[in-house]
Write a structure and sequence with these properties.
With 309 residues, this protein is α+β, with helices and mostly antiparallel strands. The protein is built from seven helices and 15 strands. The strands form two sheets. Strands 2, 3, 4, 5, 6, 7, 10, 11, 12, 13, 14 and 15 form a twelve-stranded mixed β-sheet that branches. The protein has a three-stranded mixed β-sheet with strand order 1-8-9, with no helix packed on it. It binds 2-acetamido-2-deoxy-beta-D-glucopyranose (NAG) (8 copies) and zinc ion (ZN).
Length: 309
């Protein structure tokens, strides 16, 4: 029962500091007695809810919404925004400071608290949380943001149906890419191999650097939940369509260096993702090609009506 004690002491993925509502729930990914199939039971009333994440995104069912405009990413270009990296026993979490996001049909500015990652077992055993038309990607990065008006109080965030805004980015293996920022980020994994360890991140790379290659104006939107207990249904989800390309050698580091407890004999941190939950309505940018087609059909109809052309 050693795992139970460690799980009870586990640091919450959400909270940037010690305060966290769900650190008493003994949930896990690796053991059938506490893995995600048990969460609806061990972490009711939210994990058994009706607005749960992650979901499979059925791209043909996503409806157009012209309100889904561009975001403004404040300080994503800052090379001092990432302050600390930590092994929580469930993921790798990077604390963010002085970063926020607005636009994108969010109702106010959201303060960026942290990002963390989900993965499988190396680049060949994928572990993204969301899937797209059934496809699972090797990894998924989540930036967790809280309504700025809540002034850093995450307990307010998890109690509000749109209290949090999560930005999800798929990570794909591409050995032709040499990513200095991902090289820098993963270089810290050797310093945090055990659960509970953390280390300061030296200035030098930015969120923009880590997210290179993603057109951040193309995304899916739906209302969902945290993907870890207590699975609070408080999250406005944004999942970006483009992927971040990272060399497979770096992806493989996540599943081979990190332990889930604070001993080197504890299991490796692998398959740290929740399985797909029942579908939710997904929206996306109104397709410009469709509106162009409608426009030309409209012109055609107009010219036919006028007896021209
Ligand atoms: C390791 O974790 C156990 C509980 O899981 C705790 O009692 C112990 O203090 C931790 N040791 C270190 C060195 O952090
Ligand atoms: C999770 O637990 C269920 C039984 O509760 C088991 O069937 C399943 O294989 C487990 N999954 C993993 C990844 O351990
Ligand atoms: C989830 O569990 C709680 C507590 O047992 C219960 O009150 C609630 O009705 C359940 N929700 C659903 C959707 O089953
Ligand atoms: C970040 O972007 C802002 C707005 O475009 C700009 O004013 C600022 O100089 C940039 N900072 C860095 C570190 O590049
Ligand atoms: C968002 O971040 C920018 C840049 O750090 C800052 O000027 C602005 O005040 C922040 N907005 C809110 C609502 O926190
Ligand atoms: C992960 O992959 C390694 C190397 O292929 C393998 O030894 C290990 O059993 C795998 N772990 C799980 C939980 O599948
Ligand atoms: C969520 O918080 C916002 C901002 O404080 C507030 O306007 C809204 O009513 C809240 N929604 C719910 C469901 O509590
Ligand atoms: C990380 O560990 C290496 C040795 O493995 C050490 O040289 C380095 O200073 C450590 N980095 C930090 C930021 O503690
Ligand atoms: Zn996550």
């Amino acid at each position: 029962m050693k795992w139970l004690v460690a799980a009870l002491a586990a640091v919450c993925v959400l909270a940037p500091s010690a305060h966290c509502a769900d650190d008493t729930i003994a949930w896990c990914y690796h053991d059938p007695t506490c893995n995600d199939t048990t969460w609806p039971t061990i972490a009711a009333p939210f994990c058994n809810g009706t607005r749960q994440s992650p979901i499979n995104i059925d791209t043909s069912a996503a409806t157009g919404n012209s309100a889904l405009g561009p975001f403004t990413f404040h300080n994503f270009n800052s090379t001092t925004a990432m302050t600390k990296i930590e092994n929580t026993g469930k993921t790798i979490k990077v604390a963010l400071s002085n970063v926020n996001v607005s636009g994108g049909d969010l109702s106010e500015t959201y303060q960026s608290l942290q990002f963390h990652l989900h993965w499988g077992n190396g680049s060949s055993v994928p572990g993204s949380e969301h899937t797209v038309d059934g496809k699972r990607y090797p990894m998924e990065l989540h930036i967790v943001n809280l309504r700025a008006s809540f002034n850093g109080d995450t307990s307010l965030g998890i109690a509000n149906s749109t209290g949090l805004a999560a930005l999800g980015f798929f990570i794909e293996a591409d050995d032709a890419t040499s990513s200095a920022s991902w090289q820098s980020l993963t270089s810290y994994l050797d310093n945090i191999t055990l659960s509970g360890q953390s280390v300061a991140i030296a200035p030098g790379f930015s969120l923009d650097d880590l997210l290179t290659g993603v057109d951040r104006e193309k995304y899916w939107r739906y209302l969902g939940s945290l993907t870890t207990p207590a699975c609070n249904e408080a999250v406005v989800w944004t999942v970006f369509k483009d992927t971040v390309k990272v060399p497979s050698s770096l992806i493989n580091m996540f599943s081979t260096k990190l332990h889930i407890f604070n001993t080197t004999s504890s299991p490796m941190m692998v398959n740290v993702f929740r399985n797909i939950q029942p579908n939710q309505a997904v929206t996306t940018q109104a397709a410009s090609s469709t509106s162009k087609t409608c426009y030309s059909l409209g012109l055609l109809a107009l010219s036919l009506a006028l007896g021209r052309s």
